[in-house]
């Protein structure tokens, strides 16, 4: 993904990008953590430079992420998926799934930025929220450590009542072309906005 700085003012808390089909993407802007819609969705075409989010333009293409994929066009990106369930104990099919890269990419979040990483044994996912900071830095942070595969209970009287974290790896050493905090260096592109994760169980350890 190539991002170009433009003349737009960043007014949004988060944006959500979904693959519509093989050649187009739907992007929805929100004023909060992906609950209150700011404007109608926009559709972006694959391989075409278009206005993306805030002051950025982007040319977007997708890659197949699969253990059976062969060749340079395959994605090596490791991701974590947060699956929300209508019922407790993570019963049934998830009704909402959020996907995040876990190589410590810096992503926009509600009231700041956030980054995710996973330990080498794929046991825990660590989420770090950088409050009121737009480049994953500063001293005002909140950290959560979540057990992979464990079902967390959330709201007892309404959905979502539970959620779990899963990790999908193709290559544990892979990195993405996204900006990371200074401890990992600066690479080619800026992070994509992500909704703020819901965390409600004592098993998700906060630091």
TrEMBL record:
It comes from the Eukaryota. Residues 1-22 form the signal peptide. The keyword Signal applies. Keywords: Signal. This is Uncharacterized protein. It comes from Symbiodinium microadriaticum. The lineage of its organism: Eukaryota, Sar, Alveolata, Dinophyceae, Suessiales.
């Amino acid at each position: 993904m190539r991002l170009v700085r433009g003349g737009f003012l960043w007014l949004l808390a988060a944006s959500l990008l979904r693959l519509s089909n093989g050649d187009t993407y739907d992007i929805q802007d929100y004023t909060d953590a992906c609950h209150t819609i700011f404007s109608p969705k926009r559709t972006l075409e694959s391989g075409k430079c278009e206005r993306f989010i805030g002051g950025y333009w982007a040319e977007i293409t997708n890659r197949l992420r699969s253990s059976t994929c062969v060749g340079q066009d395959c994605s090596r990106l490791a991701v974590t998926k947060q699956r929300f369930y209508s019922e407790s104990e993570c019963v049934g099919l998830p009704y909402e799934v959020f996907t995040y890269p876990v190589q410590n990419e810096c992503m926009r979040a509600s009231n700041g930025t956030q980054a995710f990483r996973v330990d080498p044994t794929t046991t825990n996912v660590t989420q770090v929220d950088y409050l009121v900071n737009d480049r994953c830095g500063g001293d005002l942070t909140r950290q959560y450590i979540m057990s992979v595969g464990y079902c967390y209970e959330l709201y007892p009287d309404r959905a979502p009542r539970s959620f779990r974290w899963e990790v999908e790896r193709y290559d544990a050493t892979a990195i993405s072309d996204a900006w990371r905090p200074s401890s990992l260096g600066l690479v080619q592109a800026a992070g994509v906005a992500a909704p703020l994760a819901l965390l409600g169980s004592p098993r998700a350890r906060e630091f």
